[in-house]
Amino acid sequence: LIFYSGPLEGAVGDYLAVYLAGRGTLVLQYNLGSGFIKVVSKVILADGKWHTVHIHRHRNHSRVEVDGVTVGTGSSPGKATHLDTQGIVYVGGLSKDYVPDFLPYTNGLPACISEIQIHRRQLNLISNLLDGSTTVYKCHT
Fold it and tell me: Considering the chain, what percentage of its residues have pLDDT values greater than 90?
């Protein structure tokens, strides 16, 4: 699991998840409340190289870019257009205590993340860790 924001237990609510599946292909999966969409890239990211990934979502439409190239697009079903989560963001995995059954991958990311931006605002991963966040697994280099 690379990124997750949404419910941890109980009923499925709005969520957004980005994870590596199978042989290392990137997957964007989200639910805005009227059904989920899964956008799967054909590009294999588990190749030992650094990659830049951009996830764009506007209303119910989404686009995934890897290294500046669009590798997947999709639209969630229904009329819902807003992502309503509790605002908590998980990067690199979830604790074993929290395993949403609607996600196929929740374990730690066997890779490194150097930077994350949400709405063009950079998350300070080190600062957030010092402010009480916890690590699930360490960076694999």
Answer: 42
Report pTM. 0.83
Buried/exposed 122-136: b ≥16 CB within 10 Å, e otherwise? eeebeeeeeeeeeeb
* CA 87 to chain CA centroid, nearest Å: 13
Please write the tens of the pLDDT for every residue from 10-31: 656 899 999 998 888 999 999 9
DSSP E strand stretches across the chain: 3-5, 15-21, 25-31, 36-44, 53-58, 61-66, 69-75, 90-91, 116-118, 121-123
Dihedral angle over CA of 92, 95, 99, 100, nearest 10: -50
Q: List C-alpha distances in Å: 51 to 45, 71, 73, 104.
A: 7, 13, 18, 23
Give residue for tokens 């996600």. Answer: 103
Q: Which two tokens stand for residue 51?
A: 């990659």
**CA-to-CA distance for 50 and 53, rounded, in angstroms?**
10
